[in-house]
Amino acid sequence: MPAQTQLHFFKEVNEDAPSVTDMSEEVAVRWLFQKSSFCSLFVPEFIKHAQHPILFYGVGTPFCSSNTLPGDIDLMLVDRSAPQKAFVFECKRVKVVTRPNQPVRINNAKKVKHAVKQANAYYCLGFHATYLVIILLDDSRELDVSNPLMRYNTEQETNRVYEIPFVEGLREEIGVVYIKVIQPLRKHINHAGGYGVCVHRKAKNKVQPADLSDLVEKYIFNHGKPSNDGTL
């Protein structure tokens, strides 16, 4: 490489890109887990030395019904070789937007309260471990900070979102995970951005009933094909 070459990894270029907060909850979840770099952060937090981890989205029958609590299971993570240890995750997206000379705008925070009820209902299904996942989509492109690496929200209101599960009656057996996706530049989130995972509280694992484990094993057999699953 010539000595005078410059690499502009964080050069501000306006691509007229959509906000990361435009992602629906389902799109945000799939966007994250389709990235091997994200999965390499996430999966080891729950399954150590996984042989064949597999992820399923929007799981319903035979475990639950979309018409009653908890509704469909947003995510189920399991190693093919250990169906008796299935991890289930209730995910809730929260949008954070910064605009010049305006207070930070936080949307969907109230929906976290309902997610607490859903997660509590997940726990009663009997899976090995249950988690509530809060996904914070942070559009900080307009934050008045010269260094793009420092463009992310640290407002007290943002931090209060993280406290909701603990004041809304989340069962102590249920784990809590925070995922933050940051869009600091006027580029598409696929071109410039970052994400992180924090397991704030580990779930209390329990022995999964044998009949439930049999259902998980059958579900993997019936749905765990490369064409339609979330194979990692």
Overview of the molecule:
It is a single chain. The chain is of the alpha+beta class and 232 residues long. The protein has one domain. Helices cover 24% and strands 25% of the residues. The chain is built from 5 helices and 8 strands, in the order H-H-E-E-E-E-H-E-H-E-E-H-E. Strands 1, 2, 3, 4, 5, 6, 7 and 8 form an 8-stranded mixed β-sheet that branches. Strand 5 (129-139), helix 4 (156-167) and strand 6 (175-183) form a beta-alpha-beta unit. The chain is globular. The two termini are 36 Å apart.
Q: Mean pLDDT, rounded to whole units?
A: 83
Helical content band: 10-25%
Number of strands: 8
- Number of spatially distinct domains: 1
Number of helices: 5
Shape summary: globular
Assembly form of the protein: single chain
Radius of gyration from the alpha-carbon trace, in angstroms: 19 Å
Main sheet attributes: strand count, strand direction, barrel closure: 8 strands, mixed
Indicate the topology.
Elements: H1 25-33, H2 36-42, E1 53-59, E2 73-79, E3 87-97, E4 105-107, H3 111-123, E5 129-139, H4 156-167, E6 175-183, E7 194-201, H5 210-223, E8 230-231
Parallel strand pairs: 3-5, 5-6
Antiparallel strand pairs: 1-2, 1-8, 2-3, 3-4, 6-7
How would you summarize what this structure contains?
This protein has helices at residues 25-33, 36-42, 111-123, 156-167, 210-223, and strands at residues 53-59, 73-79, 87-97, 105-107, 129-139, 175-183, 194-201, 230-231. It is an alpha+beta fold.
